[in-house]
Design goal:
about 0% strand; elongated; mainly alpha; MetI-like fold; about 70% helix; single chain
């Protein structure tokens, strides 16, 4: 219960900050509760920028990436779990070791690569990232697929199925909890990403996370923090709703992914 309160406190503070006036925001000492909730901050957050368009961009990129990276990671995880071949274990270790590489190190090479390919200010980088799979999701699927009894695989082979059909018709239907967890995690990662859209997209094609940080200014050019807080509060709503809907699958997949190494 205490942990729940600790994790909920920043969100509560954000919502309360979104209901404050500008004077309450800068007041010393800090006021926790607004005297009169200023709900118009939320209206301004939606109307001052093209909020729906930026939200649509975020939804499109997040959903596209989530679907592609889930399928590609499941396919790679299936290969590591069920296929035989020389060097499979070292390759798996190398794949997992890439998770320790700080993403900040790849920013400049990423921009140079996509710039030379003519993909800057397009959504193709997110498609390519999705097709490249995620090391963490590969590990998640690999652990789950390795725990499935080999009898199911043998029965499918006897029925004349190749490994492609075994993956699509046997293993994928059994992995619904892990699939939903992968979709949830990858959608959340991309929904909350700031650096990639800021680096590769202009303001007309960017995502909501970038638009919130670069917009909401008064006539003097200063940021309006209360309206930014209102926009940020709206920004977290889709992820919260998705998690509340899929949390039981998330818990189930975490429990089952460690059943067998």
């Amino acid at each position: 219960m205490l942990l729940a309160v600790l994790f909920a406190e920043p969100l509560l503070w954000l919502v309360l900050a979104a209901l404050k006036t500008q004077s309450e925001w800068v007041a010393i000492p800090i006021t926790f509760l607004p005297e009169a909730p200023r709900w118009s901050n939320f209206t301004e957050a939606v109307t001052q920028i093209n909020f729906l368009a930026y939200t649509g961009n975020s939804l499109f990129l997040s959903a596209t990436y989530a679907v592609l990276v889930t399928f590609s990671s499941a396919a790679v995880g299936f290969g590591f779990a069920r296929l035989k071949g020389p060097g499979k274990r070292p390759l798996f270790v190398i794949l997992l070791s890439t998770m320790m590489l700080p993403s900040i190190l790849t920013l400049i090479p990423t921009y140079v690569l996509y710039s030379r390919l003519g993909l800057v200010n397009t959504y193709w980088p997110w498609v390519l990232w999705g097709l490249a799979a995620s090391p963490y999701l590969v590990f998640l699927f690999r652990q789950f697929f390795a725990a499935i009894p080999k009898d199911l695989e043998d029965a499918a082979i006897i029925d004349g199925c190749g490994y492609g059909r075994i993956f699509l018709r046997v293993f994928l239907p059994l992995s619904v909890p892990v699939l939903l967890t992968s979709l949830l995690l990858s959608f959340t990662w991309m929904w909350g990403d700031y650096l990639a859209p800021a680096l590769l997209l202009d303001i007309d094609h960017t995502t909501l996370s970038v638009a919130i940080t670069q917009s909401y200014r008064n006539p003097h050019g200063d940021y309006i923090p209360t309206v930014q807080a209102a926009a940020a509060a709206l920004y977290v709503v889709p992820v919260m709703l998705i998690f509340l809907f899929a949390q039981r699958y998330f818990v189930r997949s975490v429990a089952t992914s460690g059943m067998k190494g």
